[in-house]
Amino acid sequence: MLDRVYLTKERVREIEKELFVLKTKGRKEMAMKIADARSHGDLSENADYDAAKEAQGLLELKISKLDQILSKCQVISADDFPDDKVYILSKVKVKNITHGIEMDYLMVSPEEADFEQDKISVTSPLGKVIMGKNVGDIAELTVPAGTVKYEILEISK
Fold first, then answer.
1. Based on the domain organization, do 83 and 142 belong to the same domain?
2. What is the separation of C-alpha 81 from the centre of its chain, rounded to a whole number of angstroms?
3. Which element (helix H / strand E) includes 156?
4. Region label for 136, one of left (φ > 0), alpha (ψ between -120 and 50) or beta (otherwise)
5. Which of 11, 73, 76, 146 minimizes the number of CB atoms within 10 Å of its CB?
6. In a 3-state reduction of DSSP, which class is residue 14?
7. CB distance 8 to 112 below 8 Å
8. What is the CA radius of gyration of the chain?
9. E strands within 14-145?
10. How many Å apart are CA 7 and CA 4, to the nearest integer?
11. Same domain for 86 and 62
12. Whole-structure pTM over 0.85, yes or no?
């Protein structure tokens, strides 16, 4: 069964652009590095050649991973989901009741998660406990230090 990867239109464009650069410029640069390393003589004792071949393998692995993501992706929009509950692409304001701290998050797929940009994955521990909640609901997250309670303050698109 093909697992779906849910991405925004913007993220699909970013991946397509990155993939184009890797397949064109990245592969060309890698071929030049390998050719340069090969020109240094005996390949059996050539650390530059080994490093270049390993880097080529990593480049091809990244290309393959991005190709796979695009082949399984389904483009979604916040308008695809109601705004009365926390869903993927919901903007959520939560309050950590234990510490009295309010935080704003955008709920995204694991492929788009970026904690520094306040984008949390729907499969992250916090994402899992707040998914499907309404404004005013309390979500409990069990952590090694105990249980942390979060109140859903706002949900928007």
1. yes
2. 20
3. strand 146-156
4. left
5. 146
6. helix
7. yes
8. 22
9. 73-75, 91-96, 101-108, 119-121, 138-143
10. 9
11. no
12. no
Token pair for 127 = 């994402």
57-111 pLDDT tens trace: 999 999 999 999 999 998 988 788 877 899 999 999 999 998 899 999 999 988 8
Asked if 108 and 89 touch (Cβ cutoff 8 Å), the reply is yes
- Tell me which residue of 150, 154, 4, 2 sits closest to 76, measured CA to CA: 4
Closest CA to 46 of 59, 58, 35: 35
Do residues 95 and 110 share a domain? yes
Dig out the tokens for 101 from the structure.
């701290």
The answer to whether 56 touches 34, Cβ cutoff 8 Å, is yes
73-75 vs 5-7, strand pairing mode? parallel
Residue 42 sits in which domain range?
5-75
Name the pLDDT band for 26 (thresholds 50, 70, 90).
very high
Domain final residue, candidates 33, 55, 75? 75
**Domain count along the chain:** 2
Euclidean distance between the first and the last CA atom of the chain, given in angstroms as a whole number: 31
Whole-number Å distance between alpha carbons of 78 and 64: 28
Residues 97, 108: contact at Cβ < 8 Å?
no
| Angle in degrees, CA 55, 26, 35, rounded to 5 | 65
Chosen domain end from 75, 92, 118: 75
